Each structure stands twice: as structure tokens, then as C-alpha cells.
Amino acid sequence: MKAKTLSASSFKAPIVKANALSGTFAFTVDVEEWFQVGAFETTFTKADWPSLESRVELQTLKLLDFMRGASIKGTFFCLGWVAEKYPSLLKAIVNDGHEIACHGLDHDRLFTMSKADFKADIQRSKGAIEDVTGVTVIGYRAPSFSLTPNVWWVYDLLDSEGFKYSSSLYPVKTDHYGMESAPRAPFYPANSSIVEIPMTVCDVPFRRLPASGGGYFRLMPYWLSRYLLRNGAKQSSAPAIFYMHPWEMDTDQPYVKEAPLLSRFRHYQGQARLPAKLTRLAKDFSWGRMQDIYENILTEVKVGK
């Protein structure tokens, strides 16, 4: 089936407003097991998961320790799968003052699901997170930034299940994800009251680069990542968003020699240097939670939906 493309009618006017916490960027974490990542999707199946070493609790607690020491508050997009298996971990995240949000149930990409599948996915994952933490979940991030024009209907279902914002689009084209035609500033998708808060990109001569971190932060020299974050925020007139995964700090995780070479490079390269880079990042920018930075947008009452 030919992929759809987005037209200007897919968006309402982008929102460009000063954030409530002037100068603060969003620190976000996608909480998932090391073996649930896209890099290993051709190596492991869900049937393999029970036989693999679980390290998400150890990894996330290590990251929480770092953030506590660096005085960073952030937003943790958690899989419902993790909430069901490690409820004490989610309680620890909330007890440290972080926002808890939803990353889907078990990291299925959106374009692999029907509307019924997606509704069941977010109902179960959101419910599991809320039952464990006692906190109302308002934020959602699609696994692997897999929100494409073919599944634009997810916004209606997110709205119906009580979400207020999504951070599921990366306005850049890579071989793994991206929607370059999407706005760079927060926007309301047409006919939706959900706010989409895109990841940060930076235009440099002749190309656009991802600026929000992830594997790029591990692979790029720190000075370049800092430049892209700062200038990407200026170009979009919106606070930058940084993201990472707990497994990125774990140099003792299993090495999957069966995975393709490129997948192994993406997953493992730069892990040993990451703590030092994060320490510099914590000093160079002010960091906060998505729900606080975008509070003025999220509390708006939408008229004429």
C-alpha cells in the first residue's frame, strides 16, 4: 500500500508560546527493556522475552540516582508491560517527583496495529500505569516515533482515553523513523484537542539533523549535541526535548552478537561515555517535566473542536 503524505489541512496552526518555565528544556526517558528496542526486533520475538535477562529495574534505578544527584526532574514514558511487572519501579519514579506518561503496552509500532488493537493497547497500558501510581496519565509517546500519516486516527483514540498530549513525531527523515513534513513547534492535529509536541530538530546547511538525543547523543561529540539542542529550540521557538533510555547507561547488559552489525553499533556504541555527557548536559541547560513546561498549553480549553 502506498504511504500517505500529509497536507497542510492535517494541522491546525502551530502553537508558539513562551513556556511556563522560561529557558527550561524537557528531559524525557523511554522506559523499556534492552531487548524490546527496535534494533533487536529482527533478532528477538516476544516469545523470547521470558528467557532474556531483565535489567530495566536496575537500569532505571541507576538513572534515577543520576537525575537525583543532578537535580533533574523529567518525564518518564513507561511501557505498560513494565508497569505490570515492576510496579515498585513506577512508584519510585513518581516518588522522585517525575512525571509518569505512557509509551504503549509492549513497544508495538503504531502502523502494525488496527484501531481496535491500538485502543486496547492504550487502555491496558494507561490503566496499568495509573493503577500502580495513583497518578492520572496525560502524556503519550509512540514506540519508535511510529506515528505516520497512515495512522493519523490515533489522535482521536488518545483523546477519547483521556490523554492531553503526545510526543510521537520526529520532524526529520531517518532510515528508522521520522516525518519531515510535520510542524516543528507544538500543534493541534486537525479536528483534535490532543497537543502534539514534536521532538527537536536543527536545520544546518544542506540538511536537517535530529537534536533530541537518543542514540545520536551517544554517537555525536558533545559540543555538536549541545549546539543542535540550543539552536533547534531557537529555530522552532519552542523548548527543546531531550530523550534517552535507561539501558543506554548499562555497559553490563548482554551483548547480542546475532543482531545485524548496524543494530549492534546503534545499540552499544557510546554507552561508556554517556554518564559524563549527561553530567555536562545537566550543567549546561535547565531541565523539567513536559507537563510543567507546557502547562499553559495543556490547560487551555479547546473551542470548536
Written overview of the protein:
With about 300 residues, this protein is α/β, with parallel strands linked by helices. It has one domain: TIM Barrel, CATH 3.20.20.370. The protein is built from eleven helices and ten strands. The strands form three sheets. Strands 1, 2, 3, 9 and 10 form a five-stranded parallel sheet that branches. It has a three-stranded parallel sheet with strand order 4-5-6, with no helix packed on it. Strand 4, helix 5 and strand 5 form a beta-alpha-beta unit. It is globular and about 45 Å long. The protein starts with about 25 loop residues before the first strand and ends in a 7-residue tail after the last helix. The C terminus is likely disordered.
Number of strands: 10
Structural class: alpha/beta
Large-scale geometry: globular
Instruction: Bin the helical content.
Output: 25-40%
Mean pLDDT: 90
Query: The CATH topology is what?
Result: TIM Barrel
Low-pLDDT runs of 5+ residues are: 301-305
* N-C termini distance: 31 Å
Text of the CATH class: Alpha Beta
* Percent of residues in β-strands: 5-15%
CATH-level-4 superfamily name? Glycoside hydrolase/deacetylase
Largest sheet: 5 strands, parallel
Brief descriptors of the model:
single chain; 305 residues; alpha/beta; TIM Barrel; 5-stranded parallel sheet; 3-stranded parallel sheet; 10 strands; 12% strand; globular; disordered C terminus; Glyco_hydro/deAcase_b/a-brl; NODB_dom
Précis, in short:
This protein has one domain (about 15-300): Glycoside hydrolase/deacetylase (TIM Barrel, Alpha-Beta Barrel), CATH 3.20.20.370. The chain is built from eleven helices and ten strands.
